[in-house]
Write a structure and sequence with these properties.
The complex is a heterodimer of chains A (469) and B (149).
Chain A lengths: L8 H27 L10 H32 L6 H24 L2 H7 L17 H24 L4 H17 L9 H36 L3 H22 L12 H11 L2 H16 L8 H24 L3 H7 L3 H30 L8 H37 L9 H7 L1 H23 L14 H5 L1
Chain B lengths: L6 H34 L7 H12 L7 E2 L2 E2 L9 H6 L3 H14 L17 H15 L13
Antiparallel strand pairs in B: 1-2
Classes of the chains: A mainly alpha (469), B mainly alpha (149).
């Protein structure tokens, strides 16, 4: 660890992983409710479990991004963090607020929670992914602004690398776009239009900047390739991300009210959205091929390569499958959307956070070259179990979705099966998805277990000086 | 990448490209919201009941199981067109249907998906019905493909 204050990242990473485990637990509950409809009813109805599942995902990824930022911004800027104390205080504020929100979801029914938190004063609740009570949303905004201030001052007082500039741009966008979460007009179409300013412009916009910056940092560290080369790639990738992704928002405007020209704009630009992810694959594999050192942390390198491939498959390929308007007319809001959502989030954002954790956590635990060979082997087992399980989840949901479209969407009115009749017919795919989900949980347990193994990777004999550089 | 393609060229594409597309997106948003939407969403028909109905919708996290215009959870049926599917496009029929449905929940059929009992007042059911009726009339490029949603 080059700067002591980088260590504030540690609690962020640990808490992120705890929430990750919670997210997967609730994912299994949901998977079971899909086939055993009354499982845990009325104690934990589907909508509550789903809120917990998706909100935990968003919150733990935010913890992961913050941890990544606290870790790499000081190192890139070559200076200590502006205020480690502020970082610690904000950690506890965010952790307590997040935990209370989840407990609120689980302990009272949603309407009561809305009343208890005075949702009527500034109604923002009850919209997908933005279910948090308004007070929690304000808390997230406050934490985010404090965080941005802290790392912003740090970045500005030190060396201004492209990695830091891109990361800060992404985080700034994340915070600004969050403000649209507070806009909730009575007009549903207006509400939906600007709701996408948070949801789409996060995951298909500024989050790609964050992902790109973290990936670039990791590749600099693991491959020793010249920073100039890596930064050029990073610029090209984020250029493509924003050029395709901003107007690509239009693929969400097809069927929620906006005019027909969005059918064309959304189709054309979102068809380009796989490009930045494809570039990330080329980038990661090229840099590894041209590496000037063999870093002993093999697990981190696997995560870095894995995230590029899985993000391309999940966000790129599975996104493209149903993004053209004539296709999306039939697939919109079906299990195909769910398939895409699962692999895209896992490939792009779960895996990039696990990449930086894999690299940074050993260093923070006094193992500068990575974990012991045994621990790395176990982590790599976790990688493959989780990743292959997610591939299966995606394939099974895709199967369910294709069948759903065939039975419920394609036939004419009189012939089409109803929603619930269709669900019964595709139950086998949901069972298989549940089994794959259980394997994912197994993979997560193996992954978390790898943290318990002691020992560290030895300093590479010949390359010691290079690996430290 | 070839040496002729320099880092500053890459940066300029990024900066120029993103500024251009942000501005284009804002211009399109302005056109969509100011020119096109008032005709497509019938906003003059958003009565107090419709607005109240959206609050009821949000207050009970309906989107946590259902989709509305294809967005939400995929556990329960699409509701942007439920006015046509269950009410046959008639306000009184739909209101009666929705009231009876909300009272009958949960069905408690073993193993079947269950909808909670939300204990809505008569006025809240009225509002929810008005909201779903208004929603069904938004011009959404003729989605969904058929009545089943």
């Amino acid at each position: 660890m080059k700067y002591q204050s980088q260590a504030v990242a540690k609690p962020y990473f640990i808490f992120a992983l705890i929430l990750f485990a919670g997210q997967i637990l609730f994912g299994l509950i949901l998977g079971l409710q899909y086939v055993v409809g009354d499982f845990l009813f009325p104690e934990i109805p589907f909508n509550v479990a789903r809120m917990v599942h998706t909100n935990l995902l968003i919150v733990w990824l935010l913890f992961g991004f913050m941890g990544a930022t606290y870790w790499l911004v000081p190192e890139e800027a070559q200076t200590e963090l502006h205020s480690p104390l502020l970082a610690k205080v904000l950690f506890w504020v965010f952790a307590v607020a997040g935990t209370l929100t989840i407990l609120g979801y689980l302990s009272v029914d949603y309407a009561t929670l809305a009343d208890l938190t005075y949702n009527n004063l500034l109604p923002t609740m009850g919209r997908e992914f933005l279910e948090q009570p308004t007070i929690t949303k304000i808390g997230i905004a406050v934490v985010a602004v404090g965080f941005l201030y802290n790392v912003g001052v740090t970045a500005l007082k030190g060396r201004k690398t492209v990695v830091n500039i891109v990361l800060m741009t992404g985080l700034f966008g994340l915070v600004v776009l969050w403000l649209f979460a507070f806009y909730n007009p009575s007009n549903l179409t207006l509400d939906k239009y600007f709701w996408w300013f948070v949801v789409h412009l996060w995951v298909e916009g500024v989050w790609e900047l964050i992902m790109g910056a973290i990936l670039a940092y990791i590749l600099i560290k693991l491959t020793g390739v010249d920073r100039e080369v890596i930064e050029k790639w990073l610029y090209v990738i984020i250029a493509m991300a924003l050029i395709s992704g901003i107007i690509g928002t239009g693929h969400h405007f097809f069927w929620i009210g906006p005019p027909e020209y969005w059918l064309w704009l959304g189709s054309v630009f979102s068809a380009l959205e796989p490009l930045p992810f494809f570039m990330m694959v080329l980038f990661a594999f090229n840099m590894v091929k041209r590496r000037r050192r063999n870093h002993p942390n093999k697990a981190a390198l696997l995560w870095a390569l894995g995230t590029s491939v899985m993000a391309f498959l999940g966000a790129g390929v599975w996104g493209f499958l149903h993004t053209l308007a004539p296709v999306n007319y039939y697939t919109h809001g079906s299990q195909i959307t769910a398939a895409h959502g699962h692999m895209a989030f896992y490939g792009a954002y779960v895996m990039i956070v696990l990449t930086i954790i894999s690299y940074a956590m050993p260093i923070m635990r006094g193992r500068p070259y990575g974990n012991s060979a045994t621990a790395q082997a176990m982590e790599i087992w976790g990688f493959w179990l989780m990743t292959l399980s997610m591939v299966c989840i995606t394939l099974f949901l895709t199967g369910a979705g294709v069948l759903q479209v065939w039975l419920q969407r394609m036939p004419d009115a009189g012939e089409a099966l109803s929603f619930m009749a269709t669900q019964d017919r595709i139950a086998l795919f949901y069972w298989m998805r549940l089994v794959a989900g259980a394997f994912f949980m197994g993979g997560l347990v193996v992954y978390l277990g790898s943290f318990l193994i002691k020992g560290e990777a030895p300093e590479p004999a010949l390359e010691g000086a290079a690996a430290r550089a | 990448m070839a040496e002729r393609f320099t880092k500053s060229m890459a940066r300029n594409i990024y900066l120029g490209g993103s500024v251009f597309f942000v501005l284009l997106f804002l211009a399109l948003t302005l056109d969509t919201q100011v020119r096109a939407m008032p005709e497509r969403d019938n906003r003059e028909l958003i009565t107090e009941a419709v607005a109240k109905g959206k609050e009821v919708w949000e207050h009970n996290n309906c989107v946590g199981c259902h989709t509305i215009m294809g967005e939400g959870a995929y556990f329960a049926p699409e509701l942007a067109n439920v006015f046509d599917r269950r009410g046959g496009g008639d306000s009184a029929t739909f209101r009666a249907y929705l009231g009876a449905w909300m009272k009958a929940m949960p069905t408690k059929v073993p193993g079947r998906r269950q909808m909670p009992q939300f204990n809505l007042t008569e006025k809240e059911v009225d509002a929810l019905a008005a909201f779903l009726e208004w929603t069904s009339k938004i011009d959404d490029n003729n989605w969904p493909p058929n009545i089943e949603g």
